[in-house]
């Protein structure tokens, strides 16, 4: 199915749901994506990926004393590529102006402090 989608779409997101794709099939699909100028994003284990993005939830912001509204999810992120060094970072996934944004953790902390200060002054 992914091979057919790669023929007609520029971006294909494939969720494996715990299934294992044989390395030979991974190579075939990667080559097809390359030849079509498409991007294949796989959620799951994949043999020899060009880029691997791993994340782990490390916390939440916005809940106070067991109640409140969840404002962001804190993530530790690791990115590794075939060519280049592995990089680590800390990101927060936040709702901003009706859409979802990825922000460096330091920026989110400062934004929260500024918002709290504005609310206190009002």
Describe the structure.
The chain has 122 residues and is of the alpha+beta class. The chain contains three helices and six strands; from the N terminus they run αβαβββββα. The chain has helices spanning 2-8, 23-36, 105-121; strands at 11-15, 39-43, 51-64, 67-81, 87-96, 99-104. It has a four-stranded antiparallel β-sheet with strand order 3-4-5-6. Strands 1-2 form a two-stranded parallel sheet. Strand 1 (11-15), helix 2 and strand 2 (39-43) form a beta-alpha-beta unit. The chain is elongated and about 50 Å long. It starts with a helix and ends with a helix.
In short:
The protein is of the alpha+beta class.
Sheet with most strands: 4 strands, antiparallel
**Spans where pLDDT lies below 50 across 5 or more residues:** 110-122
Mean pLDDT: 82
Q: Within the largest sheet, what's the order of strands?
A: 3-4-5-6
Strand % is over 45%
Q: What structural class do the secondary elements suggest?
A: alpha+beta
Number of helices: 3
Order of helical and strand elements: HEHEEEEEH
The total count of strands amounts to 6
Q: How many angstroms separate the termini?
A: 56 Å
Tell me the layout of helices and strands.
Layout: H1 2-8, E1 11-15, H2 23-36, E2 39-43, E3 51-64, E4 67-81, E5 87-96, E6 99-104, H3 105-121
Parallel strand pairs: 1-2
Antiparallel strand pairs: 3-4, 4-5, 5-6
List keywords for this structure.
122 residues, alpha+beta, two-stranded parallel ribbon, 31% helix, 45% strand, elongated
